[in-house]
Amino acid sequence: DTEVTQTPKHLVMGMTNKKSLKCEQHMGHRAMYWYKQKAKKPPELMFVYSYEKLSINESVPSRFSPECPNSSLLNLHLHALQPEDSALYLCASSQKAGDGYEQYFGPGTRLTVT
Amino acid sequence: AQKVTQAQTEISVVEKEDVTLDCVYETRDTTYYLFWYKQPPSGELVFLIRRNSFDEQNEISGRYSWNFQKSTSSFNFTITASQVVDSAVYFCALSEARGNDMRFGAGTRLTVKP
User: Fold this and answer.
1) Which helix (H) or strand (E) holds A34?
2) In whole angstroms, what is the distance from residue A7 CA to residue A108 CA?
3) Nearest to B50 among A58, A102, A108 (CB)
4) Buried b (16+ CB within 10 A) or exposed e, A22-61
5) Confidence tier at A2 by pLDDT (50, 70, 90)
6) pLDDT for A74-96, tens place per residue?
7) What confidence tens digit (pLDDT) does each residue in B3-41 have?
8) Hey, which of A57, B9, B22, B82 has its CA 20 to 30 A from B63?
9) Using alpha carbons only, what angle is made at residue A38 by residues A63 and A56, rounded to the nearest 5 degrees?
């Protein structure tokens, strides 16, 4: 079953709020990813977790804080966001990081920052 | 650094027409992986195919076919007898063997009209 789930589907938050995005996979994958996608643009990599350890942080502002509690779960904690952070946030997983393993994506969380 | 170019921003065809989506890539690695993803209006990225740099065999899957040519650094995608359900944004992506990340092209928006 190639399925990655994400909650919530939609999120509206003010600039002073704290919220979290959640991602879960049950494919036994050991790599998980967060991407940000603005309208009419390709996904941009934010973070890569490999075996529950952060392996890539693409110079993402500290108002985005990832967390990988276990191999199946990936969270993205949000705090003091800006309106320009409004986007579709996609989670993905792959069998391993690197070696060209294909990534499977969740449906995304559409975030609006007001 | 790896780079993927999808020069066609938007393509519009009438149902049952064949359509080819172009993808040109750049990499210094000899081992790399190429991917195609489909993103329908719902937003979820759907994995279509993965190719490694040592396998130049073309592939056919139903109405979909892929043409990988290392000599021209291209990995083109053809949909035969297009259908309205093929309407989506299609992304070509590249992953280098020594990296944990995957870089997307800008995407091609395909509209299939009835």
Assistant:
1) strand A31-37
2) 8
3) A102
4) bbbbeeebbbbbbbbbeeeebbbbbbbbbebeeebeeebe
5) low
6) 999 999 999 999 999 999 999 99
7) 999 999 999 999 999 999 999 999 999 999 999 999 999
8) B9
9) 50
CA closest to B106 among chain A residues: A42
Whether chain A has a CB inside 8 Å of the CB on B23: the answer is no
Q: Which residues, 6 or more positions from A60, have their beta carbon under 8 angstroms from its beta carbon?
A: A46, A47
Q: Cβ of B100 and A50 within 8 Å?
A: yes
**Average pLDDT rounded to a whole number, residues B73-84:** 97
Give the C-alpha distances (Å, rounded to integers) separating B75 from B68, B69, B109: 4, 6, 17
Encoding tokens for residue B81?
């007898």
Task: Please count the residues of chain B.
Answer: 114
Handedness of CA A21, A27, A29, A35 (dihedral sign): negative
CB-based contact B42 A107, cutoff 8 Å: yes
Q: Running DSSP on this structure, what letter comes out for residue A101?
A: P
